[in-house]
Amino acid sequence: MNALVSIEPVEAGAIWRVTFGQPPGNILDRATIRALSDAFHEARKDTSLKAVCLAGTGEHFSYGASIQEHLPDEVSSLLAAVHQLVMSILESHLVVVSAVRGCCLGGGLELAALSHRIVAEPGATFAQPEIALGVFAPVASIVLAPRIGQVAAEDLCVTGRTVALDEAARLGLVDEVARDDALDAAVDWARRTCVSRSARSLRYAVQAVRARLVARVQLELPELNRLYLDGLMSTADAVEGVQAFLEKRAPNWVNE
Q1: What's the pLDDT tens digit per position in 62-100?
Q2: Beta carbons of 199 and 141 less than 8 angstroms apart
Q3: Distance of alpha carbon 120 from its chain centroid, rounded?
Q4: Is the entire prediction scored with pTM above 0.70?
Q5: How far apart are CA 27 and CA 20, in angstroms?
Q6: Is 250 inside a domain boundary?
Q7: Which of 72, 84, 212, 249 lies 20 to 30 Å from 204 when distance is taken between CA atoms?
């Protein structure tokens, strides 16, 4: 599709293998986010498509959203792009499987958590580390709890700790541990479970089973984005945390 997103149709076009980003970290900057949004908009138009299997390029899923674009003069447009991507995924009404290699962090975990299924390779790690930068994760604040429960979701969002593969599987964050390549395993699952179904019926089934989640996102994500922009970004510590990360130093919190 472009340099940031690659689409490979398989199973006579019933499944798309989609890889995104630029190694090593497949950072979710605005350009990559918009390219993914465009891919899902195109996927929605393909009436024969049944499942999208999503992976980062290379050895990692994603290090997360661009920290540079979290600075005050850029973060509003970043959040708007993320909102558009979330809705393009949800409104495609397609079965989505994320294949995780290596690190799945921050915005990368938010992206994976929107999937119906997460397949991960040995050595994969997961985290919502935004709090270490003095910020929070709006999408994860909504979508993690339906997947792993409210207590576990709060733990990941508030502590920012890293979860190894075994714990991620226990939490229900990971649905399958791949023996070999995670993307191949994701495609194999989609082949076994989706290809024999009606593409039209699958989309109605996805729309039905995700109706509550979509309603929550439509209602709550704009409110959380406003909380981020009008509340959090008016504090000194939010700006300090991002600048400290970019300057490779410890943050100097003033608690204001």
Answers
A1: 999 999 999 999 999 999 999 999 999 999 999 999 999
A2: no
A3: 14
A4: yes
A5: 9
A6: no
A7: 84
